[in-house]
Amino acid sequence: MIKTDYVLVEGELGRIKKNAKKIEANYDVTITKKPEIGLTMLKAQDSVEHQEFFLGEALSIECEVALDKTVEGIGICLGDEPERAYFIALFDAALKIENNLKLELLQFIEEEYLDILKKEKTENHHILKTKVDFNLMD
Amino acid sequence: MGYVAVRGGVEAIANAAHLVEFYRLRDNTPPIEIKQLKAQFRLAIDKIMGEGGLYAPEYGAIALKQNEGDVFEAAFVMRAYRATLSRKFYSETIDTENMFVKRRISASFKDIPGGQILGATRDYSQRMLNIELAEENETVVREFLEKFNIDIDLKEIKKYGRITGILRHLGFLKPFAKEEDTSLVDVTRDAVKFPAPRSGRLQMLARAETGGIMAIGYSSIRGLGGVHPTIGELRVGLVKIYVKDRTGRKRYLGKVEVTEAETINNELEVGQNGKNVPYMSIGYGLCFGHNETKAISMGILDRAMRDPEGRGVAHDQEYVLYHTDGVESMGFVNHLKLPHYAGFSAGLSTMRKAVKRKEEEDQKLNPSLAEV
To answer: For chain B, which end, N or C, has fewer CB atoms within 10 Å of the first or last residue's CB respectively?
Structure first.
């Protein structure tokens, strides 16, 4: 669940759309809640005394769908990305149904995850090049 | 003297708004795209989001464009915009220890587990004006990126334990000795009352104006306050946001960039034998985006406000929190430009009467003045 959300939130929208179209082609899709922006209050805590406090709000968007009027899907993500929220909801519902399409979607999730990981590792490589190598002065 | 209702200025106000747009556009340059602003003005947008109290990089970029780069106004616009939206979720407590670290340094220890990672910083630059940027074009950008993205080593991404963990392990780091209110409040829902719980103070500092808290934090470091910490750890990176959806399932929403500062302070507490025993406490700073000045200043003021008997304004909760909210302080300073005709006229009338009375008294005391 979390991995699927992670991929659909961080992944490339064009490829996600391509797979979301497969869901639309296989089911009767009803948008039960149109994408709607709102706020998510972020809770934080200090690192020593663990005092909780509210850091601030983040813009978020949620959307809900039903496949064949029976299987519900909920999509939520940060930002004003109605299309992405809709696709997350589609995947959420489609992955509840055991069939070949689910396997296909899961394979896409795995492939996309590796691609996201590669991008993150690339950024991490650049960051690690700024690690200080201390040498004692003569 | 009563108030006199006046009307007028509607057309002038509308034309002033058009004139603002004219000055923004009159050179007929290509409109700046929001994605350009998001990419190339990230630090300004981080300030806008932090001070606006709304994490939304795209909207922060729009606010920056709308206000011609005025970060104060842009934060104001963001704060106003957030007031139009309803709150749908509360996140799980964000986990800064396991953030995707982009920068992480300590001024307390040279050798730290995982090492000092400078990340993207201008700390060691000589602040020379780079006039070459005047000639920057797409070719320059492309060539830079091509050179930058070679020989990539795809290592596993590490998590970094906290440096303050070392001090805690040694038994030096302890919670601040004075007891205080630890309840969780939300200053966007309930007006803050003083003394404010620490949660309210941290929330207000997190959306305070950077320059405001920097100035008061600096006053403490300079000696007009009792807090002059060492940076235990400063880290910048991405934290993951999780919420529960309406069915109770944990959902991943995305990442938010934050800056976190743990400032270390030397303290004394009375031991069992009645003698003072030294220990260390932290001041904590956490804010949206990459804004180190803000996180460090927040750490200084967090610690200072926990000791209200301390000398200097940094220790005074009301002084710090009421005067460092950028939207409130900017709003109040700028309201001085709005018509105060009735009040000023009343003051003028009172002054005229006072001057006349003084003249009459002077004449009584010295009638010869009347002939002058």
So the answer is: C
